[in-house]
């Protein structure tokens, strides 16, 4: 029987995964390979606005071959996590910030804004409906993927008049094999991720598609990830394929490339800046050149480098490779600043530590 819940109707799902099978899947879920029983779906049309909001069984989406997204790529997404708290409950981490960024991404891609209250409620209801899927493991969490795409049936270059907004959920473990171990980075000198005036600040699927060729090049050269340089001078550090980057110096200060329209305004990035400043550390948002990175690593002025994002939290960078050589950061392992910041952030996310900034939203 359908039950109303604010703006959503929650449909009873008669065929959920049996408990024994779910337990087996949660033992080693990997990342983004296992999915929960339910999803949120809301429809949009120009004449009706957002309507027919439901929590329903996760299922394939019927799609006409002429759907606008397949031809003109109007699509955006988000990523956030629900965490199991020590008392057995669950929390979301800064969902309002994801909702706000989703709105900005929609604006850039000429798509209708999803009301932030509806975005958060969809995430909350999917999580509470599928609460049994939240892992109990230390590195486990329930990854939520809100996304929206154009589904008007037409062939013509204009913003669509119809859209679908959905939220699906996936229980996950550590993003990188080895958890918080240091990774190797390949510097892409041929490809760029985004340019000024482009879509770099939007969480748009095309940005990630554009990074795949460079990521394949990184893999071919024995590296875990790729780092992009700016599109104009090919000199300044931009970001990794899907993560922001930080540098830690001998005086304990941190530097991260500034937001300027071509870098995604990461929520983990913002959280780490806040935590570092809370601890009395200087954090500069300034351009940082690839040659300076190499020079500072060689001189010892640079003590640590790490990437950050929702999926991986913090990933230390141990080695950087280029076509003309390679360099190591300190001893090539995770450093104390990255380790400390990661632990502070994870403890807040899992409701193990005080939350002075009100980032955690209790679900149950």
Instruction: Name the CATH homologous superfamily of the largest domain.
Output: Aminotransferase class 4, branched-chain amino acid transferase, N-terminal domain
Biggest sheet architecture: 10 strands, mixed
What is the CATH class designation of the largest domain? Alpha Beta
Domain module count: 2
Query: How many individual helices?
Result: 8
Number of strands: 19
CATH architecture of the largest domain: 2-Layer Sandwich
Q: How much helical structure, as a percent, in the residues?
A: 25-40%
Query: How much is the average pLDDT?
Result: 94
Identify low-pLDDT runs.
none
**Spatial gap, N to C terminus:** 23 Å
Strand content: 25-35%
User: What is CATH's topology name of the largest domain?
Assistant: D-amino Acid Aminotransferase, Chain A, domain 1
User: What form results from the Cα inertia axes?
Assistant: globular
SSE pattern: EEHEEHEEEHHEEEHEEEEHEHEEEHE
Structural class: alpha+beta
Q: What Rg, in angstroms, do the CA atoms define?
A: 21 Å
GO molecular function: L-isoleucine-2-oxoglutarate transaminase activity; L-leucine-2-oxoglutarate transaminase activity; L-valine-2-oxoglutarate transaminase activity
EC number: 2.6.1.42
Pfam family, one: Aminotran_4
Catalytic activity: L-isoleucine + 2-oxoglutarate = (S)-3-methyl-2-oxopentanoate + L-glutamate; L-valine + 2-oxoglutarate = 3-methyl-2-oxobutanoate + L-glutamate; L-leucine + 2-oxoglutarate = 4-methyl-2-oxopentanoate + L-glutamate
